[in-house]
């Protein structure tokens, strides 16, 4: 390589770094600026209803209160039930439907298009649709149940026993297509030679699913678990539209409790503390799944 080419190469690298530096700085400010600001505010007592008190520094008092707050324990418990119920059901249904699509030879594109329809609807609109469908008097489900003799309707979102399972049903309806899309793409990435070899050895459909398909889509399964666990743990919009955390606090999630603390009780300092808590727990969950993904890649 000549000296002139070397100079051109160095100049190109400097230009590339200069072009990347400004967007990277802006992106870092947009990401870490609000994060640092939230962490700092979590160390203050900032009550919006008490203008004269200012924002006194309280240190880690908000965090001490967080770990002794019974509502936080209730909200985290409801959130974990919601996460496990939604993600577990979506993963099972997604795998079953993705396997059925994988076996299809005709109409696969049309089926994919129809299956993805719930996912493209905004969560708030989805919540409103299900709110009217499950209305105990005029909803579609109530009308169908009345045909079979169930008069009076069932208050799906008005009873503490059914409210949280009903919310899980709404989430499963909307986001199972996402799971189907990812798992089906993983199945299509498995080489045909593996299936042919298994069929020659006399393996049946269940043996192929267990020995070839499941190990082959393990990275996609972990990816689905990562994204859906993060999404469901931070759930807010669906719960806010359908139940507002009720009846009582039976469907109050940690995201909704954070919102209510900041914008209903106007305790912004404690709301920032809850936001930091959500961030830390999501980061821990994400790092666990990412570590599993990396370990999977190492052993492949």
Write up this protein.
This protein has 300 residues and is mainly α. The protein has a single domain, classed as MetI-like (MetI-like fold, Orthogonal Bundle), CATH 1.10.3720. Helix content is 74%, strand content 0%. It contains 13 helices and no strands. Helix 3 (70-103) packs across helix 7 (160-188). The longest helix is centred in the first third of the chain and has 39 residues, at 3-41. The radius of gyration is 25 Å and the shape is flat. It starts with a helix and ends with a helix.
The total count of helices amounts to: 13
What share of residues is helical?
over 70%
Helix/strand-derived category reads: mainly alpha
Q: What overall geometry do the principal axes of the alpha carbons give?
A: flat
Looking at this structure, what is the CATH superfamily? MetI-like
CATH architecture: Orthogonal Bundle
Q: How much strand content do the residues show?
A: under 5%
Total number of distinct structural domains: 1
Overall average residue pLDDT: 87
Provide keyphrases for this structure.
300 residues, mainly alpha
In short:
With 300 residues, the protein is an all-alpha fold. It is built from 13 helices and no strands.
Q: Helix and strand layout, with pairings?
A:
Layout: H1 3-41, H2 61-68, H3 70-103, H4 108-115, H5 123-133, H6 140-147, H7 160-188, H8 192-200, H9 205-216, H10 218-233, H11 237-242, H12 254-263, H13 268-299
């Amino acid at each position: 390589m000549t000296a002139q080419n070397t100079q051109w190469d160095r100049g190109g690298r400097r230009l590339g770094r200069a072009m990347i530096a400004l967007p990277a700085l802006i992106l870092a400010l947009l990401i870490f600026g609000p994060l640092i600001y939230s962490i700092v505010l979590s160390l203050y007592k900032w009550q919006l209803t008490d203008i004269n008190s200012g924002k006194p520094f309280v240190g880690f008092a908000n965090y001490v209160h967080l770990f002794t707050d019974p509502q936080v324990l209730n909200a985290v418990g409801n959130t974990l039930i919601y996460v496990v119920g939604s993600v577990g059901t979506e993963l099972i249904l997604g795998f079953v439907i993705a396997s059925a699509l994988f076996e299809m030879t005709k109409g696969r594109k049309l089926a994919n298009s129809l299956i993805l329809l719930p996912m493209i609807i905004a969560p708030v609109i989805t919540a409103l649709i299900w709110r009217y469908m499950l209305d105990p008097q005029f909803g579609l489900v109530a009308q169908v149940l009345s045909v079979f003799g169930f008069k009076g309707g069932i208050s799906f979102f008005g009873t503490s026993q059914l409210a949280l399972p009903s919310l899980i049903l709404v989430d499963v309806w909307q986001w199972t297509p996402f799971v189907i899309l990812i798992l089906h793409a993983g199945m299509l990435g498995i080489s045909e030679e593996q299936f042919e070899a298994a069929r020659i050895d006399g393996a049946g459909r269940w043996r192929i699913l267990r020995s070839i398909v499941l190990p082959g889509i393990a990275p996609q399964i972990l990816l689905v678990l990562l994204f859906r666990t993060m999404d469901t743990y931070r759930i807010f919009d669906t719960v806010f539209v359908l139940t507002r955390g009720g009846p009582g606090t039976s469907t109050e999630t940690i995201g909704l409790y954070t919102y209510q603390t900041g914008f209903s009780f106007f305790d912004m300092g404690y709301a920032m503390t809850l936001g930091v808590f959500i961030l830390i727990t999501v980061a821990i969950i994400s790092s666990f799944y990412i570590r599993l993904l990396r370990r999977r890649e190492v052993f492949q």
